[in-house]
Amino acid sequence: MSPTTARRVRPVVAVVALVLAVAVIPVVVAGLRSPDRRLDPTDSSLAGSQALAEVLGRHGVTVQRLDDPDAVPRDDLQDTLLLVSDPLSLAPDDARSLAALPVDRLVVGADVAGHLVGRATVSGSAVPRSREPGCDLDAADRAGSAYLGGVTFSTGNGVTGCYRSDGAATMVRFEQGGRTVTVVGDGTFMTNQRVDEDGNAALAVNLAGSQPRLLWLVRAAEQRAAGAGGASLSELVPTRVFWVVAQLAVAVVLVALWRGRRLGPVVTERLPVVVRAAETVEGRGRLYRSRRARDRAALALRSASSDRLSRLLGLSSAASAEATVSAVVGRVGGDAAAVHALLYGAPPTDDDGLVRLADGLDALEREVHDS
Questions:
Q1: Domain for residue 56, yes or no?
Q2: Do 172 and 120 contact (CB within 8 A), yes or no?
Q3: Is 163 helix (H, G, I), strand (E, B) or coil?
Q4: Are residues 77 and 178 in the same domain?
Q5: pTM of the model as a whole
Q6: Domain limits at 306?
Q7: Count of the separate structural domains present in the chain
């Protein structure tokens, strides 16, 4: 292939690769995306509620996550609150069975059949935003403003409404059959994304932590995500895409075999520059001198000399200063204080002192070596 032809082919190949990337990558990302686990007490994503579950645990509330209505216990329900995070996806029989349980319940949203929400009548919808309680309900009044909206409910007949939008309440509470039923139109204030804003955390803890034990039902959200993601990646990608990718792969292999360079024998080459050790030492010395780093230069000299003396004296590299000085004095004699000052004393204050230090270290090493 001539250079002219190659220049003409490159833009075409680039465009084809870009088209394939734009067509295939979104499908791959959609297939790999994890299912929606909204209001799941074990999910740490923005849509989950792990932060709220941990706060409830610190307040002494036992949070029990359930993924099936049949798993909800039917006995020993004293001091228990049932939280249903998505009643819309429950079957009517399951909703009716849960509504009959002798427990207080907190319902997020409204179910179509109305079994779980009881006397709460859906009146419309409202955009979720920060709202003031506007009611005499203690749990809401102590929390203050909160991020609520979604489904709205009409009040009356013993139903207390809070966080209103155009006269309709986005949260209601009432008594039914000796049980307290609380219904909120949207549970965004309970998610990890919003729980630390306004009074969301306080409201969520006041509602979900009203009893020592919390049964948290998340089955509906997981089932809906599984139903939406039932198609496999191979089913989502058109068949012709696989044929195009296969043909491009074959073409790339053939071009690689045609134009690929053949590897010859290994060729050894001489290094372009040989630097003598003395030049390296002199260069470092000039660098120390330009920065007036006498302390670092002295430390380097003493450290190297101490290592060499340790080997000559049969000491370990971790030997202490006292052990090194004692071994030197024991080998060559002399004043221990002078030897200690030479090996571990204060750094010199001028260049002449640094030269004297180097000479003294050399002389000491020669004495130990010759002894």
A1: yes
A2: yes
A3: strand
A4: yes
A5: 0.53
A6: 277-370
A7: 2
